[in-house]
Amino acid sequence: MRYCVIGVLLSSVCPRDDLRSRPDSSSAERHVGHRVEVTTPDPALSARTIELALDNVAQGGKPFACIVVSAEDGDVLVEATNQVAQSGDKSAHAEIVAIRELASRGREDLSGCIAYVTAYPCPMCLGALYYAEPDLVVYAASREEEGEHYEDGGRYMRLLTFYDEYAKPVEERSLPAVRGEVDDPTVPFRTWTAEHGDE
Amino acid sequence: MRYCVIGVLLSSVCPRDDLRSRPDSSSAERHVGHRVEVTTPDPALSARTIELALDNVAQGGKPFACIVVSAEDGDVLVEATNQVAQSGDKSAHAEIVAIRELASRGREDLSGCIAYVTAYPCPMCLGALYYAEPDLVVYAASREEEGEHYEDGGRYMRLLTFYDEYAKPVEERSLPAVRGEVDDPTVPFRTWTAEHGDE
What we know:
By secondary structure, chain A is α+β, with helices and mostly antiparallel strands. Chain A contains nine helices and five strands. Chain A has a domain at about 45-170: Cytidine Deaminase, domain 2 (3-Layer(aba) Sandwich). The longest helix of chain A is centred in the first third of the chain and has 16 residues, at about 45-60. The two termini of chain A are about 30 Å apart. At the A-B interface, helix 3, helix 5, strand 3, helix 6 and strand 4 of A face helix 3, helix 5, strand 3, helix 6 and strand 4 of B. Chains A, B: InterPro entries: APOBEC/CMP_deaminase_Zn-bd (IPR016192), CMP_dCMP_dom (IPR002125), Cytidine_deaminase-like (IPR016193).
């Protein structure tokens, strides 16, 4: 999987002690024991998302990063950056690259994890996070702050209007969509539910 | 890239003549010339998304498929199915698998393409399609029809309430999200825009 190359463990690029030596009143509790829940954001990790995003820009990439850490002990599980410019894959946003990388290592969801991101997720990545189910998302910039300084829209939306598209009825969204004619559109769902519905 | 294995050209599994011999009043115009725009949905392709979804269920997968065709000449560029169950990657919905597969072949967006899907896209895939920019999305089942027969929610949403989450303010969404403290959250965006803003 081509994205593995950017999904590096923080320990390989930034020693844990170095990270933990930064001023950070909220992360100290992580040292107490393995069962301590950490829900207070760690400013050092938000700062790291900014650093990774800047590094990605320097490498020709887009200005976004995502770090997934264990909520239990603060271990960094993956660092990822937006790979759209590098790969041409429009779905390769940092959050999705992180989810893919963790899946490739056998972790199928982010329960028990915190996702640190450069900016509040776009609608695509928000959807991915609803499926992946981290305990918490910590974002450095709001959508509005991002939109003031960055534009990555296209013929169907601008970043500042992207969420508005979701509030519209299907037929009013700028992405054209029509019903196709089929005899029985729900047969795949009924078939799946008959086999898996009680799982 | 692991998803390439399921991104097979239709021509390899279903001869074009076979496809075109099905009753299909709208697709005939595709034979007229290379410059004819095809925006009328082809029922044979919607039926094929149902067939692929059923095949995927038979293989242990989820009941979704996506076929991307050229709007100009009707050529099938990729067939993809949901690979979440097979790969553990929560982002591996059919639409995103198709986008990744086409990107791996050098096609970075879906302009000039029509995306045929089993059901109207979930919020994640809708976002991916806003970025990939197909000319048209053709869906067999509506979200409501799908929701009547299938459930794939989790601790943050049910399928029928998923879009409702997007209409809420950030702080009211069920996926917990908080601001992280950083000195300058927009520096990655300003840096990117300084380099690329006039592209």
